[in-house]
Amino acid sequence: MKTSSDVAFSAFANTIYDTVGLNRLIDNITLIERSLFKNKTGPISQKARDFTTGNIIPIFEEVEKAGLVAGTDEKQLQFLKDLASYLQNLPVIKVTIAFDPTQSLVVRLSNQISAIVGSKIILDLTIDESVIGGAIFEYKGRRSLQTLQDKLEGEIKTLINSTFST
User: Fold this and answer.
1) In terms of domain of life, where is this protein from (predicted)?
2) Digit-coded pLDDT (tens) for 115-128
3) Residue 95 CB neighbours (<10 A)
4) How far apart are the C-alpha atoms of 63 and 68, rounded to whole Å?
5) Distance, CA of 95 to CA of 45 (rounded, Å)
6) What is the reported pLDDT for 51?
7) What distance in Å separates the CA atoms of residue 89 and residue 154, rounded to the nearest whole number?
8) 82 to 21, 120, 125, 164: CA distances (angstroms)
9) Which regions in the chain score pLDDT beneath 70?
10) How far apart are CA 90 and CA 69, in angstroms?
11) pLDDT at residue 166, as a whole number
């Protein structure tokens, strides 16, 4: 069962797909956290308007509207710390591909892997032009080669082995 914090944190997590977006969001949260109480009152969304740009303010407004962020300064500060911790602990899957992907491909790939895994994941993308067709996936020390190169090498080995064994 999801807690109200999980629901609020998910609203933020669902706006990011790769480590670049993750780092940008954590930087924004850290900036808000440091600047939050400089002669300001009210919800985080109001306090943070002068300190950050981008799409983070509407997310704060949504979770505040739903009553998922408490009003006291101490509880707001704790929310920001817990949010940053939650985001930093999202699973990261390293993906190596041969080309610089479009944002729509990054979103689609992140969503597909998240659906397979059953929870939100973040992609750590690496471009390696030596990868031929497909991708290499790495997670917690395990590696999956899903490339045309790997399949071709396997087929060639099978062909050579079958030729020499007959």
Assistant:
1) Bacteria
2) 988 999 999 999 99
3) 22
4) 5
5) 34
6) 77
7) 36
8) 18, 17, 26, 61
9) 54, 165-166
10) 21
11) 57
CA distance linking residue 13 with residue 122, whole number of Å: 9
Backbone angles phi, psi at 62, to 5 degrees: -65, -50
Averaged pLDDT score across all residues of the chain: 88
**Structural tokens at position 10:** 């998910």
Q: Which is nearest to 76 in space by CA: 54, 47, 51?
A: 47
Instruction: Enter the pTM of the model.
Output: 0.83
